[in-house]
Amino acid sequence: MTLLELIELLKKRLALVIALPVAFGLISAVYCFLFMPNEYTATTSMYVLSTHTGDTANVASSDLSASQMIANDVAKLFTSDRITRETLEATGLDSLSEYDVSVESSTTTRVITLRVTGPDPRNAAGIANTMADRVSDIAREVMGIEAVNVLDAAQIPTSPSGPRRFMYVAVACMAGLFTAVAIVVLADTLDTRVRSADEISDLLGTPVIGRFPAMRKGR
């Protein structure tokens, strides 16, 4: 099937091609705006100060690389069961299942960024700050690190960070369009009726030698 043939098929089923994307988009919009809760993201950043750092102006490249590896190790602490348990005890929450915790540790700096996303902005900020404090204590206790200093404490977010409702609606509309095209192509493939003299000529391998004119209004 050529592109022109596909366009002609879509023109014949234009109502379906328009209706399905609209229907998919409306269903997605109703679900996103009525049933999906807002998400809030609280962010805190920390700086890992190694006991071998000394004067930052005279840090050797090997010491810097070692400090960056230590920062990566500290970032792993956020996923430990101990941090989760102590955070739950400090915040009074039953579970962190509603909150997404992400940690970023760059390979070129000793700065660790912690983001906590969840339905409650106050709890998200509380979880982020509590985790930062607990990780700082455990890092000094277990890893012999001089300090994990909090550069920016997590503030209670005032506006939602998600979900991306309009993006979901746009994706649903695209899915509806692809579904409509698939239905039109499948219906045309399954339709084996002969609809023109040219199709008869192709099937029989013989030329068309005559045509009956279409009669309109009894003439």
Keywords:
single chain, Alpha-Beta Plaits, 4 strands, 2 domains, alpha+beta, 219 residues, 53% helix, four-stranded antiparallel beta sheet
Question: How are the SSEs placed, and which strands pair?
Answer:
Blueprint: H1 3-12, H2 14-35, E1 40-49, H3 61-77, H4 81-91, E2 100-105, E3 111-118, H5 121-142, E4 147-152, H6 165-190, H7 197-204
Antiparallel strand pairs: 1-3, 1-4, 2-3
Q: What does this protein structure show overall?
A:
With 219 residues, the protein is α+β, with helices and mostly antiparallel strands. It is elongated, with a radius of gyration of 32 Å. It contains seven helices and four strands, in the order ααβααββαβαα. Helix 4 packs across helix 5. A four-stranded antiparallel sheet has the order 2-3-1-4, covered by helices on one side. It folds into two domains: 73 residues, no CATH class; 113 residues, Alpha-Beta Plaits (2-Layer Sandwich), CATH 3.30.70.1130.
Number of helices: 7
CA radius of gyration is 32 Å
- What is the CA–CA distance across the termini? 37 Å
- Report the count of strand segments: 4
Order of strands in the sheet with most strands: 2-3-1-4
Question: What's the name of the CATH homologous superfamily of the largest domain?
Answer: EIF_2_alpha
Report the CATH topology name of the largest domain: Alpha-Beta Plaits
Sequence of secondary-structure elements: HHEHHEEHEHH
